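Researcher: We're reviewing a set of sequences before deciding which ones to prioritize for further study. For each one, I'd like a predicted 3D structure that I can look through quickly. This is YbhB/YbcL family Raf kinase inhibitor-like protein. If possible, include the structure in token form so it fits the rest of the review sheet.
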Amino acid sequence: MRDGRMGRSGRIAVVAAIVATAAAGCGIVGGGSPVERSLDGLSVSSPRFRDAAPLPADYTCTGKVGNPPLRWSGVPQKQTRSIALVVDANNAQGAAEVHWVLFDINPLTTELAQNSVPRGALQGMTSSGRVGYSPPCRPDDTYRFSVYALDSKLELKEGANLRETLERIAQHTIARGRLSAAHIE
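Model: Here's the predicted structure for YbhB/YbcL family Raf kinase inhibitor-like protein, in token form for your review sheet.
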């Protein structure tokens, strides 16, 4: 493999891992999937909550703010062509639920403002069948804010099918990072 990129067989393994982990409820994208190579790590943080701390209620279905602000660093600049964000939850019953898919973010972007979508970025379908940020509601779930550096734009339209969007993210991921909220405040 040249330039640290994954070959066709590696991409197929990632897609298979996504489908398997989603079906098992163990995560949606990048949750310890068995892939043929390790990915570079990104650092993901928020000025509103720390990793493993509760998600502030402002960013839930009882709040009025929308998505929390996020920051990331460590993006491999030479290979990255776009950034994607997936917000998902793993509930006590082991079922995974996607609350937001944001993709085709400019690769030079390093933060996401509260209740915003960066210019040029697109949003995909969520588990609820909606497009856009679908605020979490279950107080005891773990919510994951995963950022992916991709070697390509996804070339999908606004409102793209959830499964197809997640598969494309997996096919093009070269680095990833995650910020988790243990439950809702």
